[in-house]
Automatic annotation (TrEMBL):
PANTHER family: BINDING MONOOXYGENASE, PUTATIVE (JCVI)-RELATED (PTHR43004:SF19), TRK SYSTEM POTASSIUM UPTAKE PROTEIN (PTHR43004). Its cofactor is FAD. Residues 2-172, 231-316 form the FAD-binding domain. GO terms for molecular function: FAD binding; oxidoreductase activity, acting on paired donors, with incorporation or reduction of molecular oxygen, NAD(P)H as one donor, and incorporation of one atom of oxygen. Keywords: FAD, Flavoprotein. Pfam families: FAD_binding_3. This is 2-polyprenyl-6-methoxyphenol hydroxylase.
Length: 366
């Protein structure tokens, strides 16, 4: 058994560590010469912390991450709080840690990836790799796993369509200093929509929308993020980008497998993308460890189950995204009132916490 992992982000790194723990040989490659410094993904769910604990890394993550204790709804001068009750017996429902730090912790736990090695295609069942010096390599592996993101070269080599949609509106985000937000809570404003997350070190991640057809604001402009009582300033990162949701028809074709964003991309609403990808990787390692007589059936069962989980996540994040992107207009007070009621209704708060923690999806396999 040998596995070639293409892509050394969180998904590829978790797969590598999980295979190593099970004694399965692998190669981990990435086309980038060095790890990327910026971080779109932030949230790590309790379900993912279960998996990271089995790799011996949960405590290391918790030493740096900020736990989330609930959510605050901002309605002009009013702030409505919904406190989490702690649904997981051992871990916070969600913690916040920039993806770059998560990757650094994962990478330090195992052998370094082979960087500057690009996957260029498949030839007679082997992977065509291009090294930084221009050298071509035909790499043999019993299994090839594409963990190389939304623009996956492995998926393109398979020729599989990546069906879905692109939302008309765009998102703008910033990491900045902010006055007026309570640490340890997710912050939500309705009109215009705004999401806020505290980061380790004192910065905040703010996310808002650019209406359909409107030009993006000037870079580092803080005006789109200002709300009553929320005062951002001195940004250290600013980005505007479109969002899509897409999914492959199948997560495997023969002995070539797709995991994480290579197989399914989600709106960032809900903080699901990195989590579901890392969980893809852990459970795939379990399937690959099934033994020579059972591995084909185990990987096929994995592909069906993880495809179904991703489809559920896509539906949930699509509902959240459409609600965020739809301009409420004169209905804004009604939307705010309904959300305030939800924030005060314990069963709905528990449901939101379970979704935030990833506990509405299947347990992590051994």
């Amino acid at each position: 058994m040998s596995v070639l992992i293409v892509g050394a982000g969180p998904v590829g790194l978790v797969l590598a560590l999980s295979l190593r723990q099970r004694g399965i040989p692998y190669r981990l490659t990435d086309k980038a010469a060095e790890r990327l410094p910026w971080s779109r993904a932030l949230g790590i769910q309790a379900r993912s912390l279960e998996m990271l604990d089995r790799l011996g890394l949960a405590q290391r993550i918790l030493e740096e991450a900020l736990p989330i204790h609930g959510a605050c709804l901002h309605l002009g001068r009013r702030v409505v709080r919904a406190r989490f009750r702690g649904m997981h017996p051992r871990f916070p429902s969600m913690v916040i840690l920039p993806q770059a730090r998560t990757e650094a912790i994962l990478e330090a736990a195992g052998p370094p990836p082979e960087r500057g090695v690009a996957f260029e295609g498949l030839r007679e069942g082997r992977a065509v790799l291009r090294h930084a010096d221009g050298r071509e390599e035909l790499a043999e592996a019993e299994w090839i796993v594409g963990c190389d993101g939304a623009h996956s070269a492995v998926r393109h080599a398979l020729g599989d369509p990546f069906r879905g949609k692109r939302y008309d509106a765009r998102l703008v985000l910033t990491d900045a200093h902010v006055e007026g937000l309570e640490p340890g809570f997710l912050h939500v404003a309705v009109s215009p929509p705004l999401l806020g997350f505290g980061l380790p070190g004192g910065l905040w991640r703010l996310v808002t929308t650019v209406p359909e057809g409107a030009p993006p604001p000037p870079e580092n402009d803080m005006a789109p993020f200002r709300r009553r009582g929320i005062a951002p300033h001195d940004p250290v990162w600013w980005s505007a980008f479109g969002i899509s949701q897409r999914q492959v028809a199948s997560m495997r074709k023969g002995r070539v497998v797709l995991a994480g964003d290579a197989a399914h991309v989600h709106s960032p609403a809900g903080g699901q993308g990195m989590n579901i990808g890392m969980q893809d990787a852990w459970s795939l390692a379990s399937a690959l460890a099934a033994g020579p007589d059972a591995v084909e059936a185990a990987v096929e069962a994995w592909a069906l189950q993880r495809h179904a989980v991703a489809r559920r996540v896509l539906r949930a994040t699509d509902r959240t995204t459409r609600a965020m992107l739809t301009a409420p207009g004169f209905l804004a007070p009604l939307r705010g009132a309904l959300l305030a009621l939800a924030f005060r209704t314990p069963p709905l708060v528990r449901r939101f916490e379970a979704e935030t923690a990833g506990l509405r999806y299947p347990p992590i396999p051994d």
